[in-house]
Amino acid sequence: MIVRKFNPNDLKRVYEIENMSFNQSYGIKMFQQLYEAGVGFLVAEEEGYVIGYVIFWIKYEKQGHIISIAVDKNYRRLGAGTKLLAKSIGILSLLNLDKICLEVKQTNSEAVEFYKTFDFKINRVVPGYYEDGVGAILMYLELNR
Ligand SMILES: CC(C)(COP(=O)(O)OP(=O)(O)OC[C@H]1O[C@@H](n2cnc3c(N)ncnc32)[C@H](O)[C@@H]1OP(=O)(O)O)[C@@H](O)C(=O)NCCC(=O)NCCS
């Protein structure tokens, strides 16, 4: 399994993975726009087949932000998510940031467990954050500078 930069040929697969992973979708056009805007965008590939992606950026001057991460259902628990997030944290760590933040759906305990393996901590809950009324758990990882 390798992690490499996203390129537009990956759009269809990234969109498929997003669709099987979330109820709400950014949509293919938004992925294209994020890519063109220059966000961090990586994919995990197994024998030439894209099995996961991560998108991240710098939200504020000192704060990185994980926009989205997902792995194809058929390839979960094999370490792809860990490779994608580790690479993102590695890149963001080079940029002199204080922390990396993200939001997780309150009902998504699997993702919370996943982030905890990287030592992300829970900051607070924002009720009704998502369109379906579910709250968001805000998590952060402090970066040692
Ligand atoms: C969260 C997600 C990206 C993890 O990807 P993954 O490739 O399956 O993760 P890994 O195999 O690297 O898992 C690393 C560790 O995280 C934890 N973890 C991962 N999935 C878990 C689950 N379903 N339940 C509990 N712990 C879990 C485990 O500690 C795991 O280690 P282990 O398999 O040795 O027990 C994947 O489950 C996913 O795509 N979910 C749907 C989309 C999503 O929720 N994204 C996050 C939105 S904020």
Give a quick rundown of the structure:
This protein has 145 residues and is an alpha+beta fold.
How many helices in DSSP terms?
Answer: 4
CATH class: Alpha Beta
Protein structure class: alpha+beta
List of distinct ligands in this structure = coenzyme A
Choose one word for the global shape.
Answer: globular
CATH superfamily: Gcn5-related N-acetyltransferase (GNAT)
Rg, Å, rounded: 15 Å
Give me the CATH architecture, please: 3-Layer(aba) Sandwich
In round numbers, the mean pLDDT is 96
Reading the helices and strands in chain order gives EHHEEEHEHEE
Number of strands: 7
Strands of the biggest beta sheet: in what spatial order?
A: 1-2-3-4-5-7-6
Unreliable segments of 5+ consecutive residues: none
CATH topology: Aminopeptidase
Helical content class: 25-40%
Number of domains: 1
Tell me about the largest β-sheet.
7 strands, mixed
Taken as a percent bin, the fraction of beta residues is: 35-45%
